[in-house]
Structure formats: structure tokens, C-alpha cells
Amino acid sequence: MPVDRALYDVLKIEPSADESQIRKAYLLQAMKHHPDKNPGDKQAEEMFKKISDAYQILSDPDKRRLYDEHGTTKQEDLIDPKLIFKNLFGGDKFVSLIGESLFAAALKNADKLSAEGQSNDEIKSMFDEAISSSKAKKNCTDLTEYSEDDVNTSLHKNIKIMHEYLMAKCSPYVKELCTRSEFEQAIQDEIKSLRSESFAKEIFNAVGYVYKYRAHQVLKRGKLLGIPCVLKGMRDIGHSVSTIYGTVKAAQMIKRSQDIENKSPTDVEAMIMNFFWRETVLEIEMKTRKVLDIYLCGSNGKHELTKRAEAVAIIGELYSTV
């Protein structure tokens, strides 16, 4: 047992908590008290700093051992609290690939991530709305709210950034300025540079699936039928429906009275976080499909379409193996 458990109490965890539990507890507490969600609230700002300090110490094996043994550790090595939080969500490093960062999405949903101060009925009501929203998407694999005319919307800007990034990344291969092996190495270098970021595997896998399937679909049908555009297959729709129902199921698990009433607030919060992550994956996949539709359908002729689809397929294969 540690000589002082104050830092564990800040994160609301037991001294026996493992690395994953510490990280999850930090995310839950930090999102509640982040200054951007509590502007002008000095108490929340101070609590956010305490949470960040506790996480930096307890997530570092050497600092945690020193703290457990002596109840203290060096404070001068600690990093800016906001930077720690932002980096844990990948910062802005994935914005070119998936648009709005997980950091921004997390803050947007932060007020929904706490089970404290909410009655069971309020939690159930919140997820009734979430279930209805997800079910409404069951026959849709694309972003129906996207419009090329609404250039000032956040969604339009995100799609534009993602599309331009994909264009630039694929251009050397499409224009035959590099070999396949050189292109693959460039993508491997991209993966390597981002692999250590939080949620990197989940993000790469989500994007990779959509890239791989859409590209193979175009290559197969383009060769057989000469169709120079993107067609949606039953497998693609099936995957989207599976993702949606996974999100619905996560919400329904929380909504059941026995799940809420028999679990601690911390456990319920963890379930809520799982739901919002699933919802985030759904949005990533839908935005990626829209970007691929724009990119592949913008090809000038069948040869360019084939080269673009091949480039996307290569990226998808490599992303899927992360």
C-alpha cells in the first residue's frame, strides 16, 4: 500500500489500478474539469491541474513507485495540463486523416460523460435519444447532411481537409512518380509517425477498412463493367449497419435499469465512454466514405480512376494491419 493515496483519490481509483484504468480514469475526470468546458471557473481549472499532475505521476512507473514509497515526487518535470490532455486524444495529428480531432469531440461530449449528479432516469433518457439517433442511420452509409454548397460548415471544412490530404498523399503514385514499394514505404513512415498516439490503432483500422473495401469495389467493378464511379455494395452497407447496431447495443447496455442501478458511477462512466467511442468510429467511417466518393469520382478517365483506387487500396491494406 502507498504511504499516501491522495493522487489516487484525485483520479478516483484504487492504488491497485493498472495502466489502462489510470488512463481511463484520467480521461473521465479531465473531460469534466477541462477549462474549455468550464470557462472562468477557477476551481475547475485548479482541479484540472491536479488531475493532470496525478496522471503524469501515476502513469509513469518510476514516478509512481517513488510516490508510493515516499508520498512525493519531483514536480518540475510535469508538463502543461492542457497539452497532456490534447496529446492523449492525438492532438491535431489526425485532423488531416479524420477531420475534427478526438480532442474536440471529447470536449463536445464531456458534459455527458459523468454519471455523478444524474439520476438513473436522466441517464436512460439521454441514451433513449442516442439509440433513436443511431437507429435513424441504419439505412445510411453516407453523411446525408453534407452539402457542397454549405462551404462554411464545420463538416464541409473537415471533408475538404481530408480530401486534400488524400489527394496529396496519393498523387506520387497516381502520377507514376514513384514505384509501388516507394509508395508503400511512404505510408509506413506515416503510420510509424502516428502509431504511438492514443487511439492510433482504432483510427487506422476504421479508415483502413473503408479505404480497402471501397477501392477493391471500384477496381473489381471498373474492370468488369467499365463503371467510372463508386458503387455501394451490400458488404459495405452491412459493415455500416454492424457499426451502428454496435453503437445502439452499447447505449442499450447502459440504459437497462439493472446495469445502471447495480454499477458504481465510475463503471457507468466507463460504459458511457465506450458508447461515445463507438459513435466516433461511426462518424469517422461515414466521413471517410464521403471523401472517397469525392476523390474517386473526380478521376479523369478510367486509367486515373484505376490508379487512384490502387493507391487507396494500398493505404487501406497497410492501415488495416496496424
Question: What descriptive keywords fit this protein?
Answer:
single chain, mainly alpha, 15 helices, about 325 residues, elongated
Ends distance = 38 Å
Radius of gyration: 22 Å
Query: How many beta-strand segments?
Result: 0
Helix content: 55-70%
> Beta-strand level of the residues, as a percent range?
under 5%
Number of helices: 15
Q: Order of helices and strands, N to C?
A: HHHHHHHHHHHHHHH
Class by helix and strand content? mainly alpha
Point out poorly predicted stretches.
137-142, 223-235, 237-248
Task: Indicate the mean pLDDT.
Answer: 75
Task: Give an account of the 3D structure.
This protein has 15 helices and no strands. The protein is an all-alpha fold and 322 residues long. The longest helix is centred in the C-terminal third of the chain and has 33 residues, at 265-297. The model is unreliable at 137-142, 223-235 and 237-248 (pLDDT under 50).
Structure, briefly:
It is built from 15 helices and no strands.
Secondary-structure blueprint of this entry?
Elements: H1 6-11, H2 19-33, H3 42-58, H4 61-70, H5 81-88, H6 95-98, H7 102-108, H8 120-135, H9 154-174, H10 180-194, H11 200-225, H12 234-255, H13 257-261, H14 265-297, H15 302-320
